[in-house]
Structures are given as structure tokens and as C-alpha cells.
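Memo to structure team: turn this sequence into C-alpha cells by end of day. - J.P.
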Amino acid sequence: MRRFVIIVCRSGFSLTLLLALLPLGFYAQQTDACVKELKQISASEERLDSVNTGGTFHMKYMVEVTDHEGQRMVSNVTVYKNETCLHLFSEQARLYRDADEALLVLPMQKVAFLSDMGQDKTAESKYADYKEFLRNSFLDSCKVISCETDAEGTKTLIMEVADEKYEGVYIKRITYVFNPLSKVLKSTKTEYSDDYKLKEMKVTYKETERVPNYVFNDCKSYFFDKKNKRLAKYSDYEFEDYRDINVTKTKRK
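Reply from structure team:
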């Protein structure tokens, strides 16, 4: 099992002596390099996921969420995405989105929602640019606590969030595990403050690639047939149509 070690939380003579023997500025240089490497990996994955590069982007990851009472929820997520469409699948939800509409299906609640996209066609591209700016700004504002490398070259970077700059952000610490040689982000663990509903969230990345043959159909076709009748597997679902101002609800059969 991987150990996540936060250097500033250690105490004792051995650590004090070790830090005293390091050349001045050595640790700062090492941590700056870690942040730079993480940015490069993040930018590389952002380009792969970019709506401007064409093709279909595929990703698999696992999300583990824990609250302050010890309750834990796990989601295994699969995403397919191109310039105009997105499909997302997990145990808790299925999302089908095309250029005009989005269908959200919640199997546990047995309910589905259909809505308009209602956005500028360039909005997602603008949002991707904003995400890149925000990500770099956020990383630059964080305080590096430690950056350690294991025998396989995998690095564990732990950062604390600058609360004074991001008022209202409940994140107190983020741990990134990545390999700078293979340029792979393996996992992130986000720890939240005590007054937030979650205690921590860990995301473990499994696959990130481009796939040539994935097909995106009209999003409604995943819930209705060609005669606009529900598919048999959704016969007992409640359906809510938000495409108009007046919401249309269809009860379960």
C-alpha cells in the first residue's frame, strides 16, 4: 500500500538534521520541479480531451467519496467524448449529451431527465481555456508540503490550499500521484475542511485514450424508440422533460 507522507507533520532530531544538511534552496527547487511536471501532464491530458482536436476521447476512472461519518461511496466511471457529444456511465448515473439535448438517467431513483443544452456552440471551448487558466492559477497559489519519489519513479506531491486567496473553497489539501516519465496522472486525493459535507474524495485514473469507432446516437434514442415510446427497460421510470418552460412529467407505469 502506498504511503502518503506529509513532511511538515513529522518531528524529531533526524528530520531537523537532514533538512539542515541540505543545500540552501534544494528542497524548494525540487518541489518547484514537481509542480512544473504536474502542470505538463495536466496540459497534455487537457489537449487529449480538447474539443478542438477531433476524434473521440475515452477515459475510465474510479471515484471514492468519504463523509465525516465514515460513509463511503464508490463510482466506476466511463466517459466517451467528442466535439459535440458526451456519454458518461457509472453505477449512479448515465448521461447522454449531443449538440442540442442532454438525457440523464438515474437507475437507483428510476428517474430520467431530458433538457436543452441551451448554450453557445463555442462555450465548451471557452470553458476548456478557462479550466486551464484556473488550474494553473490554483496550483501556483498552493503551498507545497512534500514531493517524494518511489523506486519506480512515481511522485507523490502534497499541496495545501491558500485559503486567503480562494474564499469559500473548502479544500484544505490535495495529493497528486503521477509519473513524470510516462506523463501519467495516477490519482488525486482531495481532503476537505471540517465544515464541508465531504471528508475526502479520491480519483484513481485507469485509462485515457482516443478511440476511433465509438458511435454517438441522438440522445433521446437511448430512452425512446423510433415511435417515441419508452424502451422496455425504462417502463417503470419517471420521466421529466425540461426542454420547455413548463416541465412535463410522465409518471412510472
